[in-house]
Write a structure and sequence with these properties.
Layout: H1 16-26, H2 29-42, H3 45-57, E1 60-61, H4 62-69, H5 73-85, E2 89-94, E3 97-102, H6 105-117
Helix pairs in contact: 3-6, 4-5
Organism: Streptomyces galbus
Protein name: Metalloregulator ArsR/SmtB family transcription factor
GO molecular function, one term: DNA binding
């Protein structure tokens, strides 16, 4: 069965069956966009450092993350705000201290691969 969309059906292919397999592998455009957004979050070295620290150690407070990454507290807070808005991390308040942790299972899986290579 060919999955070539009608707007591309008139174009010549060399390996038509592979083109159909490639279209199936790409899948839903919304899912591709969601993964691209995740990768964009991970593309910033400072955000990636924060996520690697959280993935390896578990929940940490902003000030502890700042010391671990060499960032200042406001920069850590801003990065965590972005990661929280994207659903990648969540904060758990304990008194006046908020400790953050990675909650996105897909991102955690990617971080596991990154950490294993280091």
């Amino acid at each position: 069965m060919h999955l070539v969309p009608a707007d591309r059906a008139d174009r010549r292919t060399i390996d038509g069956h592979r083109v159909c397999d490639a279209i199936a592998a790409i899948g839903d455009a919304g899912r591709v966009r969601a993964w691209a957004d995740r990768f964009a979050l991970l593309a910033d070295p400072k955000r990636l450092a924060l996520l690697l620290a959280l993935h390896r150690t578990g929940p940490l407070a902003v000030s502890d993350l700042a010391v671990a990454t060499g960032m200042n507290d406001p920069a850590v807070s801003q990065a965590l705000r972005l990661l929280r808005a994207a659903g990648v991390v969540a904060g758990e308040k304990e008194g006046r201290v908020v400790r953050y942790r990675v909650v996105d299972a897909d991102v955690a899986g990617l971080l596991g691969h990154c950490a294993a290579d280091g």
